[in-house]
User: Which sequence fits this backbone?
DNA sequence: CTGTTAGCGCTTTCAC
DNA sequence: GTGAAAGCGCTAACAG
């Protein structure tokens, strides 16, 4: 009834616990014969090594922490799915922590470290100052996703958001648009800055005046920002959004306002979430390989754990425009207005 | 540089490690004076107890496993968010495991148990036979969500899906519909059966002939099922779907087919995911309190852990119809057809 | 190739 | 109220 331990196996096999330990890990020099015998006995006894004890002894837990700001935004589950898959492949299991951007993240990281995670994946970076992050993470291997954390021994994984910001605008320009606004993400975030920078670059390259309004990352934010935009002075025929949720919110506000998308105004999203092709109009968007991002984060973390001295510097993941129905040629009726 | 342990604190305070341990937990009989002194010293030294060691010693890890079939379906993140919040309140942290419905779930449960989780929340139940579940979970406290696992020492948390299945139909009947089909979830799942049962009940009560086609849980499944329905013989003026994703997919197929929703056919979803109000037409749906479900699961698990002998039997959570735009009165043009 | 001896860092009887 | 001693279950030198 009580739990089978390594000693029970050792006793049953007539060997020391050490030998059992070695036979069960790939680790040691054990004769093939005894290894097989021990394994059989272990199986018969239904021996399940206590991972806590294993971890404590070996000082590695085969466990990683994943910290995301908001599980509810469809982007993150996708990322987590990729991370979970990759983690499973490297025999790690994931502690999932939801931690809104803010200073409380420091506690969450501390908690994770107390649990002796082998490493942490931090999606977004809630710390304004690099020193705070450094203090919070100590010497635990860390991968930051979607944010350039300029720290030694911290690796970064991200899509090419600058390019992503540009792509949308270029598409719109090719479609004949000139009044193109950008609905930006929360102020201060690196992603926000990178995408905005891309937007500005492309606008400048086209000789157009930029117009960016801070929205956020939720559909509600998109609605609100779009209304602001409608209230503003120079009318706009196209919009690039911080993400798909914002785009969807914006479309809603626009159509509530009697405007047709893409007839009157074109909208381009960002991320390409699963539902992007199912909303009406189907979202034209800048796709990032979200679950690959999660996978890449885990692989990078694996490498960092294996060799903390040399943090990998993976290349930014590619983004690409996905053309669907929410962006179209500028309408002649309005283009000349 | 090296890690501060309880011994360092003990030494600095001139007491035994036992006393430090007691001072830092609420546990023991320690004079208020020494307690405070020790706490101060611990803080000064920035002592972070190794949770692994703590867990091993105390045989409880303050850790729970949450197993979901598909993180990517918006329903689950919502549920997880609720669970995470509640877990945080009870000082537990969550191992998140994604495990498609299928026998491999047994391995995932084993893995979680090896990690010495204090309990497991299993969303859905991939085991056809109760005995398999029983074997896989052993004596680890378990809460099954959205599925009645008829096992002693296993608790169940769920919404009132039978009622949920009924509600949608009743609404449609009140709207004048008579040709009402049900796009069901994956065969074999309890949720699927409960909702279908509710559907059938309500149809019978209205003297209507039921028509259920198995769809699944994804938008693609919804599209496919709707196409099947369109190909079928008796035309239908309304549909209740297994979940919102299926409803969204169905709407897409319908409108691709030149049918207007809700003009020609009404569609009712299930769950009320975050985007339900943002798709067009905004989804009329049966709302379940998803994150409350996650919270309830954790609370129930807490109770079960505290007293494994008496598994709580929480009441089913309430569901309610949320009226938006995807369901309307039967169109006179077609109703008489 | 295998066993002995120490721990990993903390909790917990059981005494005093 | 406090300490000594004995683990929790496993891994890891160090011998032989």
Assistant:
């Amino acid at each position: 009834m009580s739990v089978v331990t390594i000693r029970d196996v050792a006793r049953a096999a007539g060997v020391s616990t050490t030998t059992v330990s070695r036979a069960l890990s790939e680790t040691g020099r054990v004769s093939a014969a005894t290894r097989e015998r021990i394994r059989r006995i272990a199986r018969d006894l239904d021996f399940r090594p206590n991972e806590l004890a294993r971890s404590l002894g070996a000082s590695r837990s085969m466990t990683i922490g994943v910290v995301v700001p908001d599980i509810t935004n469809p982007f993150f589950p996708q990322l987590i799915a990729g991370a979970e898959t990759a983690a499973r492949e490297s025999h790690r299991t994931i502690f999932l922590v939801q931690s809104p951007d803010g200073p409380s993240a420091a506690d969450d990281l501390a908690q994770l470290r107390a649990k002796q995670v082998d490493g942490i994946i931090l999606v977004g970076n809630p710390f304004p100052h690099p020193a705070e992050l450094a203090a919070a993470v100590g010497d635990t291997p860390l991968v930051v996703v979607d944010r350039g954390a300029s720290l030694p021994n911290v690796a970064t994984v991200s899509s090419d958001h600058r390019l992503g910001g540009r792509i949308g605008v270029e598409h719109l320009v090719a479609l004949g648009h000139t009044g193109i606004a950008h609905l930006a993400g929360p102020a201060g975030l690196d992603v926000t800055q990178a995408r905005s920078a891309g937007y500005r670059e492309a606008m400048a390259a086209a000789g157009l005046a930029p117009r960016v309004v801070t929205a956020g990352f939720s559909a509600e934010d998109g609605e609100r920002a779009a209304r602001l935009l409608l209230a503003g002075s120079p009318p706009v025929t196209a919009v690039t959004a911080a993400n798909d949720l914002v785009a969807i919110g914006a479309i809603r506000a626009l159509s509530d306002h009697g405007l047709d998308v893409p007839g009157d105004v074109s909208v381009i999203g960002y991320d390409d979430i699963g539902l992007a092709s199912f909303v009406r109009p189907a979202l034209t968007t800048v796709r990032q390989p979200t679950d690959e991002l999660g996978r890449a984060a885990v692989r990078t973390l694996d490498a960092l754990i294996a060799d903390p001295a040399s943090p990998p510097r993976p290349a930014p993941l590619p983004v690409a425009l996905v053309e669907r129905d929410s962006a179209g040629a500028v309408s002649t009726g309005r283009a000349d207005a």
About this structure: The interface with chain A takes residues 48-53, 55-56, 61, 63, 66, 71-72, 74, 76-78, 80-81, 84-85, 93-98, 110-116, 219, 245, 248-249, 252, 255, 274-275, 278-280 of chain B (CB under 8 Å). Chain B is about 45% helix and 15% strand.
